[in-house]
Specification:
A hairpin with a 6-residue loop joins β1 and β2. It is built from 1 helix and 9 strands, in the order αβββββββββ. The strands form 3 sheets. A 4-stranded antiparallel beta sheet has the order 4-5-6-7, with no helix packed on it. Strands 3-8-9 form a 3-stranded mixed beta sheet, with no helix packed on it. A two-stranded antiparallel sheet has the order 1-2. The protein has 2 domains: 33 residues; 80 residues, no CATH class. By secondary structure, it is of the alpha+beta class. The longest helix is centred in the first third of the chain and has 30 residues. It starts with a helix and ends with a strand.
């Protein structure tokens, strides 16, 4: 029979193992879904940002919405935010689409420009 202290130690060890398994599950699900985990704006905690498509075609505005995030394309760089009004955070270059285009007749000079590569 186990003493009270030994039972508490056993329960504590099982709880720590459970926390590690939960964290590993979260990380694995993000990796498999193509998401990117990164810090949000100062004081906002951690954001899970969905990956952008390989080729992204924008309408007349340099905004794109996917998976609960707004993306903004400006001066050959990408930014993301939960709201279209910001605050905007720079998207890591390895998460950029391979190519960013505007629909024909949109008047943008960046049409067909490769971004991030």
């Amino acid at each position: 029979m186990l003493a009270g202290g030994a039972i508490r130690e056993l329960e504590k060890g099982l709880q720590m193992r459970s926390n590690h398994v939960a964290l590993a599950g979260l990380l694995a699900s993000c990796m498999l879904s193509g998401c990117y985990i990164m810090p949000g704006p100062h004081g906002a905690g951690v954001s899970i940002v969905p990956a952008l498509p390989a080729v992204l075609v924008l309408e007349t505005d340099p905004y794109y919405y996917q998976g609960g995030y707004h993306y903004y394309y400006y001066d050959n760089a990408w930014y993301y935010a939960r709201s279209r009004s910001g605050p905007w955070v720079a998207l890591p270059r390895d998460r950029y689409p391979r190519e960013t285009r505007y629909r024909q007749d949109s008047g943008h000079r960046d049409e067909g420009r490769r971004s991030g590569y």
